[in-house]
Fold each of these.
Amino acid sequence: MGGEPLKSDQSFEEVVVQRRSIRRYQDREVPEELIVELLELAKQAPSSMNGQPWTFVVIRDAETKKRISELKNRFCPPEKRSFRAEFLSQAPVILVVGVEKSRSYGRELENGVLATGWLLLAAREKGLGSVYMSAYQPHDPGLAVEIGKLLHLPDDVQAVTILPLGYPDETPSKKELRPLTGMLHHEFYGE
Ligand SMILES: Cc1cc2nc3c(=O)[nH]c(=O)nc-3n(C[C@H](O)[C@H](O)[C@H](O)COP(=O)(O)O)c2cc1C
């Protein structure tokens, strides 16, 4: 089993620093209660006009997971073909994060992405691994349309992200971080 030792008393800083993308999962079921705990945290995220527009679809069915991984590969742009999505079908759970357009005030992407960020951190805190995967890109909505069909999403619901969830079975290599000095400016850019 990989991953940092997991403690239930991690500080916020530890959760943020230790969260990494996990693409290999143990062959171990993720209890529904844990998923519900994650979702209770995710729905605390800010949302445009406090619309709280989220829809979460929890997928455990092997065939549906396989279809999602195939769709993700099919709609992958050529320059990103090295990022294969087969691992999605190995995840015990796939969570599709969507938003109701009628509650999104034109901010579908932002609303969905923020809840996703909350979910990624909450997953780490609860000992689960995940990785951000886009379902929706405004300039190329094909994947979101196909996911919507597959999951029977109503027209008003927009899939935004795809999050595999499982107990980690890998330890990612160290991530080099760009120094803050190259990102930080005071008052004006370049200062
Ligand atoms: C907008 C976005 C799209 C991403 N798409 C993919 C993807 O299609 N496949 C994948 O394996 N990881 C994807 N990732 C995960 C990134 O590769 C990962 O966050 C990055 O390499 C940094 O590593 P870390 O998450 O371990 O810190 C995506 C992340 C973001 C924010």
Amino acid sequence: MKPITFIHTADLHLGSPLKSIGDVSETLQSKLHNATFDALCRIIDAALSNDVDFVLFSGDVYDLESRSIRASRVLAEELSRLKEADIPAYIIAGNHDPLSRNSGHVVELPDNVHVFDTEAETVEFIKDGDLAARILGQSYRSSSDSRKMYSHFTAPDTSVWNIGMLHTALDPKNNNYVPCNIDDLKSKSDIHYWALGHIHDRRILHKENPVIAYPGIPQGRDTGETGEKGCFLVELLPNQQPKLTLVPTASILWDVRKLNINIGDGEPPKTLNELKRLFRTEIEKLRSGDSEDSVAGRIIRWHLTGKGDIHEKLVENRSEASEDITETLRREFGELDPFIWTESVHIRTGKPVPPLDELAGQSELFGDIQSVMEEMKTDKELTEFDDILGEIWETDGDYEDPDYEKFIMDEETLQTMISEAGQRIVESLLERRNNS
Ligand SMILES: [Mn+2]
């Protein structure tokens, strides 16, 4: 087998707006508007600078079935850059950009591009005159597709790399997005690499024989799509483990960050001004890192945590306090380069009560509370509760809809809820004790 390298990307959702984040300036609005196109440009840059053999787009290149003219034009332009370097591109259509009757390309794509048909197809990739890989793929014909596409992906032999392109939720019960599970894909022993699309988190589900991977969305669009985003640079070498390297592509990063008012050695902030100073220090730290990383900016949802006297002042006028902090931070950092845009500030502080450990030593009641809390944190049934709810919130509704407010019940959220409940109980017991 010949060694091959390629880029695997998916779910570009070109032209899709980033979620509305409040009253932004025109400059910032245009940065948000260009972000998905910037990501495409970075993907093509990575293909060219690594001199890859080809580029795979595993569905949802466009956000909408009625493709925008700008998205079509930019895609054609970017793919032409690959053509100049003699690099082919392979595209399957997903649930957002199915190949139905209305979906002809407004702008013709260059001839180095193969868009897979709605029936399974196999395309050969020739390198230096020899067959080096086969790409097997199939496009959605409408916005949902219940066909078991993978079962029609059959390669004549395994003498060259066989790569399957599939847009799927990888959920056997989900008939909208190509029902299947990981074992179905593993059972296709003629496929070496499953280039998946649809799920916006980056996941490597199986490392070899076959590789099964989602590169995730190249540019996050809301606070449910936080952190670094990118595409995979894939190297397949004979008799070696496949190598997948993340190439960062997002110019704008979404972030949900905790700011603990008890950080540092000093006293926690007592006034709003002191609290804002704490935010400023934190933001400057982030900005200095971002300026080295070609990040245009970050959109942050803050969770203010910790214990201190300022808590009571903050919760007295909770929404006014968080709006005031938000406004100040937007004004100071929202227009800088790199920018930090504060999406919102969630006040989750508590009263300055002694640690539960200490209280537990003083009275039996607090000792009991502590052991109940410990039990809850490791309770098997609660962990299962988190599994069940997590699943409901992750799959209910269209999670690709940027306006869909995600609330994913995961282990960390559950632990936070337990700790916060404990804090409330301790606060009110102490209050009662002080008042009696
Ligand atoms: Mn999709």
